[in-house]
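Q: Convert this sequence to structure tokens.
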Amino acid sequence: MTGMLEGKIALVTGGSTGIGRATSIILGREGATVIIADVQDEEGANTVGLVRAAGGKAEYQHVDVGDFAAVSALMLGISERHGGLDCAFNNAGIEGPTAKILDYSLEQWERVQRVNLTAVFICMKLEVEQMMKHGRGGSIVSTASAAGLIGIPGACGYNASKHGVVGLTKTVALEYASRNIRVNAVCPGFIETPMLNRVTDASVKIRDQLINGVPMRRVAQASEIGDAVAWLMSARSSYVTGVALPVDGGWVAQ
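A:
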């Protein structure tokens, strides 16, 4: 059976662990050639191995997605090796500190914005340029968050960056809808990833409180986000653009 991304060239930033790793495996299984861009080289190589073990094709590139020149070089390499880019998942991100604004330093703020928002701007800009250059359209998906749709006290930098991703997604979607380039975002809730463990500090009590606030009464597996990303990348969502899709067990619907 042919996968829904058969023959597509797909970029995944932050693909070494968590949602990025799970998504890379799914994209490979669906027939895409997956280019994993990250700074965690050992974990990135492990992800490539997992994609290949699942029957997919993948390669790893060391890239700081907040560095315009590095992302430009990545895009040039993709064009030269693969003839263009069909799909991109802008997933690299950090949570930043848990602190109210009075205790949130400018340095912390700027670091979170650089990774979570400026890097998405850089990647999206160069992805659109690549897709326009090769003239076959494409699909771009970025990781926002449930925190990009509602306010969560104690994480002003993270919340602001993810709201920014949603706004950027909607704007670029409108700018290039007529050129067959679709731009969407996924908004995960609580996902079983290393980031969730860091946020809860491995506290069973805090974790239980989070789960009790989710209507489905569980956290998601990273693959459940990956399935949504693969669908948004594929022709099965061909009339969907400018959407910030919650994948959160009903959390933000409350």
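The CA atoms of residues 12 and 89 lie 5 Å apart.
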